[in-house]
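Intended use. Records such as the UDP-N-acetylglucosamine 1-carboxyvinyltransferase entry shown here are meant for training and evaluating sequence-to-structure methods. They are not intended to support clinical decisions.
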Amino acid sequence: MPTLPSPDADPAVLQVWGGSSLQGHVKISGAKNSALVLITAALLCSEDCRLRNVPSLVDVTRIGQILVSLGVKLKQQDDILNINASTISKSKAPYELVSQLRASFFAIGPLLARLGSACVPLPGGCTIGARPVALHVRGLQLMGADVQIEHGMVNAHVRGNRGRLQGAKIYLDYPSVGATETLMMAATLAQGETIIENAAQEPEVVDLANFCNSMGAKIRGAGTNTIVISGVSRLHSTDYSIIPDRVEAATFLVAGAITYSEISMSPVVPEHLTAAIAKLQDIGVQVVTEGSDCLRVIPSHNLVATDIETLPYPGFPTDMQAQFMALLALSEGNSLVSETVFENRLRHVPELNRMGADIRVKNNHAIIRGVPLLTGAPVVATDLRASAALVLAGLAAQGKTTIQGLHHLDRGYENLEAKFLGLGAKLERVPQSVAIANDAFSPINSDALISS
Ligand code: UD1
């Protein structure tokens, strides 16, 4: 796993020289969002769990540190993570770690199910939105937990002296991915049956259900809007491989489209990319399936505008919105992108405009007038997927783009630079001081930016 970044007086920037044609094949890593929740779900099991295809990411290191702080034993070899949670010595997750990674709030479900109590700091908002956890908390209450939120901590105890959550019927007001996953994990060891209605249907929810079922859980319906979990008293050892990262794959599909390059990628689950592939086709780019797990993007020089609305799965994913906006910035005509999932996820717009894009924002809508050319510029990554969008825009732009805020990129893309270099792209990570010395690059003040 990568080591965690320390506060850096001379942070790295990524220099991207645009205009090169790319070619070749990319290996897609394991899905970040699956890895984070599956590692946490291993807390449910008191025997050895082996996870394969674990991506090497800063966020994965952070979730691993949280488990270690709870007394869990972890052993990593390449992309295999061995987890032994036979002993959980604490039910309290440390604030310093949770505050750096929202996904660590996932721990509340398994801790409550395993130990009957959990104390997890409220994760707080992030750069893309407020991201409340009210649905997670309400569901746990319906399953018999007393939940107090005081001094920024969520304290939860199973009511009564049996120490075991009770199955319940839970309707989610919104198909929240995190709430569905938290409640699914909690229900796995509960007494009786839990029904989650209006559940999230994302592939990562299905991956979690498959992982838990491989340990002896009884979960049906994951991937539909109703999930039924029959609680079991304990889970057993497993050896499980995480699904490929559909957001990373979509990022490389857009990379092919935006640089007019033919590239292929595997492994992927093509059905997980249906919405992205359909939008690429609307834009004029073909994506062909080769075998069961490989995609090839066939570029077009006639990119045309289209509208995109982000929605819960199987709708168009919010995690792919910024990357597609970079492509639409270069597509002829007017496009409308509506971000309906997060309230503050258009912060890449001013950065793309700095590169010559013509995009206006009105509320949660971005109106994009396609331009024939982007030009390299100094830009700031404002969140994880926005940073990928800036790399894509930089690969297409004329001249050099210098991207600040790489800590966002490192959270969620494994070896992105190496993968692009392998395709023939020209890009280099250098200390900011070197970029300044080389070409009078002036960093943008990004003090106000915080991690999502
Ligand atoms: C997960 C993903 C993230 C992705 C998002 C939506 C992980 C680690 N992260 O985040 O990459 O962008 O799904 O696909 O898997 N909401 C409420 N109340 C709640 C919970 C959520 O109103 O109690 C709202 C949120 O504010 C947001 C929307 O629901 O507007 C979607 O959030 P949610 O599906 O919970 O996203 P996450 O699980 O945080």
